[in-house]
Amino acid sequence: NHDSPATVETLQKHDNVTVLDEEIIELEGIKVFGMADPASLGNLLITGSEEKYSGHTAEIRRLLAGLQADIVAVHRPSQARALAGLSPVILHGHDHHSQIQRYKGSIIIDAGTTGGAGVRGLQLLHEVPYTMVLLHLNRQNGQWVLLAADTISFYGRTGKLSLERQLFAD
Q1: Are 94 and 75 in contact (CB under 8 A)?
Q2: Sign of the torsion angle spanned by Cα atoms 29, 136, 146, 48
Q3: Is residue 121 very low, low, confident or very high in pLDDT (cuts 50, 70, 90)?
Q4: pTM for this prediction
Q5: DSSP 8-state assignment for residue 43
Q6: Distance separating alpha carbons of residues 146 and 137, to the nearest angstrom
Q7: Helix, strand and coil percent figures for the chain, each rounded to 5
């Protein structure tokens, strides 16, 4: 989550966190590509308009050309949709709303929020749950395939915990 320089700096302090920026890493054989959001470069509020991004999505496309990324991680939903088809799985954040969808040959996943909604989460009448998505991948014919995704949600106000599994078998 590359929202600000302070967020990136805090994440980099943890030994078990890798901040991806224009690079691909391999975890247990799974190739993951990530790129920082332009908002992480300064403390000014940057809206989602493409004018403010001046070619950022095109730059990601250029970097991905020739790479075999199993998972691509970007910050904004508009970027995830624009990159659909370039990777089997695309992760994004930003809007704090857990959602999984198939789009143009990719499975696009927004894991929601682990509390990042901050004070906004407290101002809403409906509760924003803490959420995460657990991916179940299997190697088939030399490629990683997403078999299922478990969305785990915890509602702090009520103590409700839910698990929803979505299967992707073709």
Answers
A1: yes
A2: negative
A3: low
A4: 0.86
A5: S
A6: 4
A7: 20, 35, 45
